[in-house]
Amino acid sequence: MNKASLSFLIVASVWACSPTTESETSIESHPFPYEYAAELDTIELGEERLYTLRYTLVGGETDTTVSYRFQLVAGSVRAADTIIEYLAAGDSLHGEYVFVDMPVSLGAAAFSASVQPISPDGE
Description:
By secondary structure, the protein is mostly beta strands. It has one helix spanning 3-17; strands at 34-45, 48-59, 64-74, 77-87, 92-103, 109-118. The chain has a 3-stranded antiparallel β-sheet, with no helix packed on it. The protein has a 3-stranded antiparallel β-sheet with strand order 4-3-6, with no helix packed on it.
């Protein structure tokens, strides 16, 4: 066996015996272990049909408070709002937000949403 083969064998043995490291991050280090989903729909109030956003927030392994921000654009009109929700560990929250100033007559609409955690000290 030549020196190059012996060196390779030693390096390979050391590498094979070294502990593996995983790139996973522990649950505790995630600031907001939760999930959310939303869908745009319409609702009839009185004589007017308005856009409404139906959403679901699902808590993770720890209690958390989240800021749920959403925006709707219909025609040339834009509306945005933020909802603050408390999610107990493992709980699901279903809600509906009616855009009272956004009638369907404005035209086709699109929405965007984002969720951010709120730290216990309110930041």
